[in-house]
Amino acid sequence: MSTPVIKIENLVKRYNELVALDHFNLEIEQGEIFGLLGPNGSGKTTTINCILALLSFDKGTVEVFGETMAPNKYKIKREIGIVFQNVAVFNELTVYENIDYFCGLYIMDKNTRKQYVEEAIEFAGLTEFKKFYPKKLSGGLLRRLNIACGIAHKPKLIIMDEPTVAVDPQSRNKILEGILELNKKGATIIYTSHYMEEVEQICTRIAIMDKGRNLAIGTKEELKMMIKTGETISMEVLELENKYMEEIRKLNHVYQVDYADNKLNIKCSKGKHNLIRILDYLQQNQIAFGRVYSELPTLNDVFLEITGKELRDK
Ligand SMILES: Nc1ncnc2c1ncn2[C@@H]1O[C@H](COP(=O)(O)OP(=O)(O)OP(=O)(O)O)[C@@H](O)[C@H]1O
């Protein structure tokens, strides 16, 4: 097997009393789009900062491209592109000049740099805005500029820390498509987010974090196989006596039944004919029902089952 791009073992990071990373382990292979998913404060940014050697830590090891990471490992740092949560560009420079500046930190040859900057501008959809100053850009365009600055030097590893927070849907889609494109061209991507839909959409593997620990790791299919919920069936029911709720609860594969605001919610473990069995029961007992929905588990269900709380997909 090839050397992992990232290998983190037993990482502990404390901020005084607070344990931000608690014996955290992670391995990321070349070519992955790896999602670090967790609620606010779960330790995603701390993990990224430890990978980049921007933070010292209390215990454990961090290897990048097979080498122990340290603040002076410039050869490794050249191969990493980072897009931070907060936009970090110069207000005094235009879009073109900003990208040129960041690219120039790594690419010395003038012609190559010019080509890379043009490519990054096109990639981020900023061609019309080349001469604009950041203050004149919308929030979404500013994020795209931030990304272009981070990736223009064609790094092998791109780390994106919540790049779509507070971004309009159009720019969000553009950013997600862009990440897939960068990956297709060979970059390994680490993507942190608390938007589970995005992570489901683009990531090849996902780690679910909470309180500085890695709770589960796998493809989205593997994560969903880890939990009991196979299917959530919900429907509108105008009236439902308690005795029926009890009986539904006893049906095969059903393990949770809730009824509130005329909505019946039934959680089932994995089974082939859950929906048919439930509808048969309702019909036999002449219980009228309206629209019926059947949903497969989401990453939120995985998170909920593992931690007992919602991921809060804001
Ligand atoms: N410089 C710091 N000093 C003290 N505590 C910190 C510091 N940075 C982070 N923390 C705390 O460490 C924990 C992990 O924070 P971190 O920013 O890594 O989480 P996160 O998952 O990235 O959250 P968010 O999604 O809000 O960015 C939180 O409890 C946070 O309050």
Helix-strand blueprint:
Elements lengths: L5 E10 L2 E11 L4 E5 L6 H8 L7 E6 L2 E2 L5 H5 L1 E4 L11 H10 L5 H14 L15 H13 L5 E5 L7 H16 L3 E6 L2 H7 L2 E6 L2 E6 L1 H6 L3 E8 L5 H8 L4 E7 L2 E7 L4 H11 L7 E4 L3 H9 L7
Parallel strand pairs: 3-8, 3-9, 6-7, 7-8
Antiparallel strand pairs: 1-2, 1-4, 4-5, 9-10, 11-13, 11-14, 12-13
Helix pairs in contact: 3-4, 3-5, 4-5, 5-6
The structure holds adenosine-5'-triphosphate.
Adenosine-5'-triphosphate binds next to β2 and α1.
Note down, in words, how this protein is organized.
With 314 residues, the protein is an alpha/beta fold. It folds into 2 domains: 219 residues, 3-Layer(aba) Sandwich (Rossmann fold), CATH 3.40.50; 81 residues, Alpha-Beta Plaits (2-Layer Sandwich). It is 34% helix and 28% strand. The chain is built from 11 helices and 14 strands. The strands form 3 sheets. It has a 6-stranded mixed beta sheet with strand order 6-7-8-3-9-10, sandwiched between helices. The chain has a 4-stranded antiparallel beta sheet with strand order 2-1-4-5, with helices on one face. Strand 1 and strand 2 form a beta hairpin. Helix 3 crosses helix 4. The longest helix is centred in the middle third of the chain and has 16 residues. The mean pLDDT is 92. GO terms for molecular function: ATP binding; ATP hydrolysis activity. It comes from Lachnotalea glycerini. Keywords: ATP-binding, Nucleotide-binding, Transport.
